[in-house]
Amino acid sequence: MNKITLFLLSGVLIFGAAACDGTAKTSSDAPRTVDGEVENPRNVEETREDAASEIRQNQLNSDIRAREQRNDLIGDQTDRADSDLESEVRSKLEANIPRGKLTIDAEDGVVTIAGTVPDQREYKTVEPLAKEILGVKEVKMDNVRVVKPIKSE
Fold first, then answer.
1. Rounded distance between C-alpha atoms, residue 129 and residue 10, angstroms
2. What angle do helix axes 54-74 and 45-52 make, rounded to 10 degrees?
3. What values do phi and psi take at 116, rounded to 5?
4. Exposed end of the chain (fewer CB within 10 Å): N or C?
5. Pairwise CA distance, residues 34 & 30, whole Å
6. pTM value?
7. pLDDT by residue (tens digit) across 122-145?
């Protein structure tokens, strides 16, 4: 019986690890990895509508607050897990750049961002917003492009 339980538990853990792709995305059509490409980068209306909803804004802010409170309890605010950095930077960018299609990856405090934003003004805000998150040491944006959106009718 113990062997079956161990086997089932191991299978669940392996499946869970394989299903997690290790990046955070501001929209469902952001690239899967920081080396990937955005599908339909000029179509930003659905992305903007989702990020601009009041419910989504509350979720994003709650996510950031919860992670900060958890880090307050366990010690150094600037010593963050990579997954926490990815999630907090994603939330910050999604809330403030609602038409962006960005993917965020973090490793040892270095945050790599890829994807598209609709204009130069939003491009210039990506790095400062990411650096607002405690624990972010450096931001790399080599794969962030400005792509003008399709004008809605």
1. 39
2. 60
3. -130, 150
4. C
5. 9
6. 0.66
7. 999 999 999 999 889 999 999 999
